[in-house]
Structure formats: structure tokens, C-alpha cells
Design brief:
By secondary structure, the chain is an alpha/beta fold. The protein folds into two domains: about 110 residues, Urease, subunit C, domain 1, CATH 2.30.40; about 240 residues, TIM Barrel, CATH 3.20.20. Helices cover about 35% and strands about 20% of the residues.
Length: about 450
């Protein structure tokens, strides 16, 4: 069958209800098909791999998945063919914790940490989140949009198709609205999917130092109503740490957010064991994130409340620390674990989910299969997208990646590379290694 040529990377393919695409000639089609819920315990090692599998897509949605001969019988002369060239086909990564909109960077602080200063020491001297807040407040909406578009390409190159996108580098009503408008604009422009989270309680800004309660009131009484009024977010998050927003302050903000109709997420127990995990459980949070300091009591509370833990090993690595989140204990407790990058300019300047998968296997003792489940289907459910994303099954959106390897385990095994050869979102080509060589030339988009 002769397949029509595809457009170059960055150009939209005709993803209409009548368009039909077939992905053929894979080594492994890793579908992750299974129960329609987050995966737990032994389920996290079950990937439902179809060897030499194929996939039929119509109008941006998956129609059928199975062995190649079975799918080829469904094709028509109008079907466009994607030749996977004996490579691995996976669902796109779902990165469930990022901070992708900010101005400038903190490379000077990176140098200071290399010279021996701690993250806390740098923050106390006026660095950390506050330094990014200062730059971000000064930047225009257009400047922030263009910077975030650059980072968008980084995510795509790493095989990520959906990210949770937090605000939090504005810390004023005007600046937080600006950040959330940028996220909405990015989501509308595509191709990367963004799930917005309001993080006005990321830190106490300099003008409110010593007046934390006044800032909490600002978040509750002014920021939240405006954010909800303009439909700029789905979730609200709080960085819960003593000396920033303690459990009492975080509880007030999160209860207000829940009353306003938002889902709630929590930065919990990252730097200290503060009781934030128990708070997240008591409030019915969707996720509790970081959790490096969480103990058995915190894990038990999260398990009872069915709160998904989001672990962020890249932030531990980038800060030069050695206490990673207790992933194995969480899986053994029946928690539906999620992995994410925590992409941000300070503590985790990486968009790479393959790197996170490698860290999860080498430092947290997750199998490659468990790490993959935590970065796809479990992550999709943590964002309320499990019915549409995270697996390659009939009825799901066609967000998939062809990786330049023959076995999915190579993605965590070969560290420091970008294995994604081509990335498709809703059936459209969003990124290709062959960009610049012209459509259909070495892209894997021709008759197999």
C-alpha cells in the first residue's frame, strides 16, 4: 500500500474525521491496555505489549490496535502509512508536575550549589523562587510565551505529549493571571497539551515577608476568585513547608480552592516531614507531590485516602541530595505511583522523562515497566485525563511516540539521550528527528 507523504515537523496533518492513519512495522507496540483506572502493585508491571503490533487511527483517535496482519486487513487505499521501522511505539509521556512559564534562569545559583551552598542558603539570601519571581514580574506576556514555546520543543523532543503546567512565579494577582493566560494560550496553540494549575501559594513574596497570613488572605480573597472567574485553571496547588505555608495556612487555601470547584494538589514533605501528606489525605487531594521526607504514617494516610503520589527524582538529583521518595514502599502499599520531571528553573531544570525513568530504576528501584506506567497511564489519571490519554487503546486520543530503540527498556537504560524519533499528538506529527530533510525522507512515514 502506498501511503501519502506526511508534512514536515511542526505542520499540521489533516486530522479530520475522514483522515485515516496506520502505524505499522513496530518491534513493540506498548499499549498499556488494562483496567480503566490507575494501576497498582503488580499491575504496574503489565504493559500489554503487542509484538510487531500495529494501530489504526481515524480523525485523531485510535480505532483499532493489534497484530500487523489484523490491522492491515482494515486499511483502505486512502490510508496514510507510518512505518515504525522495527522500533518501539509508546503512548506519549504525561508529565504531571512542571513549572514551564518563567523568565530568565538560575544558572548562577547552580554554580553556587556546585561550590557548596545549599538551596535553602541561597533562598535565604534572596535567591531561589524569589529571584525568578522578580524576573517573571518584569517580563511581558509575549516574552513569557516565547520562552515557554522554546521549552515546549524540549518536552516534545523527549517524547512528552501532555504536561501539568503550574503558575507560581508571579505571586501577585496581576502576575499570576499573566502566567495562567500564557498557559491557556500555549494550550490553544498546541501541539503540546497543557493542564493548568494555579500555584499562587508557591512562596511568600518579598513584599509580604513577615506577613504570611495577609498573603494567604490575598490568595483566598482575590487571586482564587479571579482565576476561577476567568476559567484559567483546573487545579490549585500549595507549597506546604514550615516557614513558607505551614499545614494550617495550606489547609485554608486548599479548602477555599475546593469550595471554588478546583481539584487540589500539594507540594508535600519535600524538605521536611511536616504532616503535609496527612493533610493532603484529609482534604482529599488528587495528588501529593515530592514526598521525599514522608514516612510510613504518611504513606498509610495517602493509601487510605487514595491520593496519588507524584515523585520527582530529578529534583533530588539536581539539588545534589540523596533521599529519594520511597517509591517501593508506596507501590507495596497499593498507591498508584506517578513520576514527573518537576521542570523548573531552580531545582529541576530538565524536561526529560527518559532521564526520570532512568533515575527511578537506578535510585528508586522501580522496574522499567513500573516507571513507564507511572509516567503514562497513572500520570494521565492524576490529571483527570485517564479516559483519553496514557494508553494506546481504541477510543483514546492518538498521542504516541516512535522511539529509536527495539525494546522499551532501552529508554531508561541508555541515559542522557533523547530517544524519541517522532512524536504524534492527536494523530498530528508534532516533532520529528527528520525535520529539515523534507516530508517522507527518512521520517518513517512511507510504505513499509
Amino acid at each position: 500500500m502506498v501511503g501519502a507523504a506526511f508534512p514536515a515537523s511542526g505542520q499540521k496533518m489533516q486530522s479530520t474525521s475522514s483522515s485515516e492513519i496506520a502505524v505499522l512495522n513496530s518491534s513493540q507496540l506498548v499499549t498499556l491496555a488494562g483496567p480503566a483506572r490507575p494501576r497498582v502493585r503488580a499491575e504496574m508491571r503489565e504493559l500489554s505489549i503487542v509484538r510487531e503490533g500495529a494501530m489504526l487511527i481515524r480523525g485523531g483517535n485510535i480505532q483499532s490496535v493489534g497484530p500487523r496482519p489484523e490491522i492491515e486487513r482494515l486499511l483502505s487505499p486512502r490510508t496514510q502509512i507510518i512505518d515504525a521501522k522495527k522500533r518501539v511505539v509508546l503512548p506519549g509521556f504525561v508529565d504531571a508536575h512542571t513549572h514551564p512559564v518563567f523568565a530568565g534562569n538560575r544558572v548562577d545559583e547552580f554554580e553556587q550549589r556546585a561550590a557548596g551552598k545549599t538551596y535553602q542558603e541561597i533562598a535565604a539570601a534572596g535567591g531561589g523562587i524569589r529571584s525568578t519571581v522578580n524576573r517573571t514580574r518584569q517580563a511581558t506576556e509575549e516574552e513569557l510565551y516565547e520562552a515557554a514555546r522554546r521549552y515546549q520543543q524540549w518536552f516534545l523532543r523527549c517524547g512528552t505529549t501532555t504536561i501539568e503546567a503550574k503558575s507560581g512565579y508571579g505571586l501577585s494577582l496581576e502576575a499570576e493571571l499573566k502566567l495562567l493566560r500564557v498557559i491557556r494560550r500555549l494550550n490553544a496553540a498546541g501541539p503540546l497539551r497543557y493542564v493548568p494549575t494555579f500555584l499562587g501559594a508557591h512562596d511568600v513574596p518579598a513584599e509580604y515577608r513577615g506577613k504570611t497570613q495577609e498573603y494567604v488572605n490575598l490568595v483566598i480573597q482575590e487571586m482564587l476568585p479571579e482565576v476561577v472567574k476567568h476559567s484559567l485553571t483546573e487545579y490549585c496547588d500549595v507549597f506546604c513547608e514550615p516557614g513558607i505555608f505551614n499545614v494550617d495556612a495550606a489547609t485554608k487555601i486548599l479548602r477555599a480552592a475546593r469550595s471554588a470547584g478546583l481539584g487540589i494538589r500539594v507540594h508535600a514533605d519535600q524538605l521536611t516531614r511536616s504532616g503535609a501528606a496527612e493533610m493532603a489525605a484529609a482534604l482529599g487531594a488528587v495528588t501529593a507531590d515530592h514526598l521525599e521526607q514522608t514516612d510510613d504514617a504518611g504513606i498509610e494516610a495517602l493509601s487510605r485516602a487514595n491520593v496519588q503520589p507524584v515523585l520527582l527524582p530529578a529534583s533530588v538529583y539536581c539539588l545534589g541530595l540523596d533521599r529519594f521518595g520511597p517509591a517501593r514502599k508506596m507501590i507495596d502499599a497499593g498507591l498508584s505511583l506517578v513520576l514527573a520531571t518537576d521542570f523548573n528553573p531552580g531545582s529541576s531544570p530538565t524536561p526529560s522523562m527518559p532521564f526520570v525513568l532512568s533515575l527511578a530504576s537506578t535510585h528508586m528501584r522501580l522496574t522499567p515497566a513500573e516507571a513507564l506506567v507511572a509516567a503514562t497511564v497513572n500520570a494521565a489519571y492524576s490529571l483527570g485525563r485517564g479516559a483519553e490519554l496514557g494508553t494506546l487503546e481504541a477510543g483514546k486520543q492518538a498521542d504516541f511516540v516512535i522511539h529509536d530503540c527495539s525494546d522499551y527498556r532501552e529508554i531508561a537504560y541508555f541515559t542522557g539521550i533523547e530517544p524519541a524519533d517522532s512524536v504524534f499528538i492527536g494523530g498530528d506529527l508534532a516533532f520529528s528527528r527528520a525535520q529539515g530533510r523534507g516530508p517522507g525522507k527518512g521520517t518513517g512515514q512511507e510504505d513499509p
